[in-house]
Design goal:
Number of helices: 21
Radius of gyration: 27 Å
CATH superfamily of one domain: Glycoside hydrolase family 3 C-terminal domain
Shape: globular
CATH topology of one domain: Rossmann fold
Structural class: alpha/beta
Strand order of the largest sheet: 11-16-15-14-12-13
Number of strands: 26
Mean pLDDT: 96
CATH class of one domain: Alpha Beta
Bound molecules: alpha-D-glucopyranose
Largest sheet: 6 strands, mixed
CATH architecture of one domain: 3-Layer(aba) Sandwich
Amino acid sequence: MLCSNSVAIQNDREFGIPQSTEEKVSELIQRMNLDEKIGQMSQLQAGCGHIPDHLADDIRHGRVGSVLNEVNVDVVNELQRISIEETRLGIPLLIGRDVIHGFKTVFPIPLGLAASWDPQLIKQTCRISAQEAASCGVNWTFAPMIDISRDPRWGRVAESLGEDPYLCATLGAAMVDGFQGDKLSEKGAIAACAKHFAAYGAAEAGKDYNTVNVPENELRNVYLRPFKKLADSGVASFMTAFCDLNGVPATGNSWLLDDVLRKEWDYRGLLVSDWDSVIELSVHGFTHNDKESACEAVNAGVDMEMASRSYKHHLQQLVDEGRVDLPQIDRMVARILTLKFDLGLFDNPYTSAADYPALVNVDHLEVAQQSAAKSCVLLKNDNQVLPLNADQMSSIAVIGPLADDDYEQLGTWVFDGDPHHSVTCKAAIERLVGDKLDVRYCKGLQTTRSESCEQFSEALELAAQCDATVVVVGEESFMSGEAHSRASIDLPGQQVALIDALAKEGKPLIVVVMAGRPLTIENILDKADSILYAWHPGTMGGPAIADLLFGFQAPSGKLPVTFPRAVGQIPIYYAHKNTGRPVSDVNCLSMADIPERPEQTSLGMASFHLDVNYRPLFPFGYGLSYTCFEYSGIRMARQQVALGGQVEIVADIKNTGHCAGEEVVQLYIRDLVGSVTRPVKELKGFQRVLLQPGEQKTITFTLHTDELAFYGRDMQLNTEPGSFQAWVGGDSDARLMIDFDIYDDE
Ligand code: GLC
């Protein structure tokens, strides 16, 4: 169906002269008046299932470039019709939605997806999410969120891809590929959005929206890396962050949004604010009022204002006053229109759901289950309690507040998920082994936050009667996500007490944790025989977990974030600096070690806490399998590599266990001396490898020396010659190491 009234766009075929998008955009802008241009720069909240009169009126008067949060396809089509048939120029709308980890089919939360370390699988989940969203008229998602997050108190760590720039960039790019496909105008492709630009995850105290102070060097070497990768990978849009960044709120930060993003990176995609983040510039105390905020945001380069109306109310006057120049407005409108052309909206802005696969179809659910299984991380498995063998059991107790909750397992940011499609752990275990085992269930606690232990007796009775107990605990989905940070990251309520009581029954105890963040679970470590960390696993979390518990699949997930022992260790992450007094097993002190005459000892002059072991509970990259892997034979073709050459690191990995298993082999590099201090390790590669029992494979990592570049004191990106170390292993505590040098042969 063609736009019936887009007078501005001469149909290419009429003249036989194919116009470039640039020409079409330029021609259209020349026809637009300032009101219409400003209209394109406004994104408004939709009516969520109906069209409020004020919205229809704004659209008719060309005052809207985009709406967000409408997913009723008939309503979306009507919004598009009004915009095309009842306006002077017939410009279609961008329809935005937070399609974060699924649409109707819900996949694991992004932090869980990151634990799969599987870019292809993640791309597939985004492809499905895009198709489902597009079938409802959505053409723009506000994802992926690629904020580096090293503070699990922060609620939005759930939405992130973890603490590491390399992993986050790699997986974020895979998400963009999944959402955008090969061509934005393809059916089922939607525009992606790299957010929140920038360093939003470094909020002080892990409190959402809080102040961020990150030196430029750290900003460039850590927080901006994933954004640069996505800018170079063709992400269609960026979104500004809420936070005050080094004293200049990101949404009004011209150094970030213009000097870096436009001038240095030459990024040409659309830049949208976050919800009300333009008018919040005055709340920050960065401007006096909405008019000043609009001026700062537009001059910094924020093309489109989300939700608030300062552009609509003040841009005309700001142009008249000469404080915003018209060429700047034209450049911004050009980026908005370019995205609309790229999406094919001028050719066909309407959606027919019949053109798409059914929502939540069996294929989508299969991928949901596979991604949930690959996201689970086995943290402990003493005495190989897992996998359970249903043939050697007669009963199993399934207990816990999250064992049969179809909503909570979906996690945060699931606007369109439907818990009716969820399959819980209890239901899945019954389906999988209910024909062989007596599956006994009770909650044990009403919710994860319950302080009442009145249901414990029933739970303990079941545990006593059954051969093994699976207890599903963790956080409700509300405890993570936007504005939902926690000062303590312990298991809430009386869950530890429940686990403690169950452990005393003396039967095999398997703890499954569903959470939106790392939790400080050292207090259950000695009580559980096995611990499986499932994050919030989405629609098919139950079958995925059941398959893993009974060995139909083997766990292969790896942690994308460091697990602290105590919240007081935060921030704690593997890619830390060495400091002048690095801690080791020999120079740290514990409270028990404090000598009678402390002043007489020189022990303990290092970087650690007296009252908690200096190591994390579980390191970045950690995850067990049902088999074991042995690494050996690390070697390099050349240990002297010229700048500009290839660094090739080879190692052997063997499955020394009794069952097949997938391992994520990880490569870490250290630059021993730099013009600025460098982390003790940095992830520079990973490969998933499947090994049969006894099988050995050789893994090769090849890097260009440019991949070891960092921003020095001069804020230039360079690889500095010198000595390096490389590790290959199954987590960031890898021990297999080799030295090499990079030299400058000029
Ligand atoms: C929210 C979030 C942002 C989201 C937007 C639209 O406040 O910060 O990530 O995309 O508003 O829902």
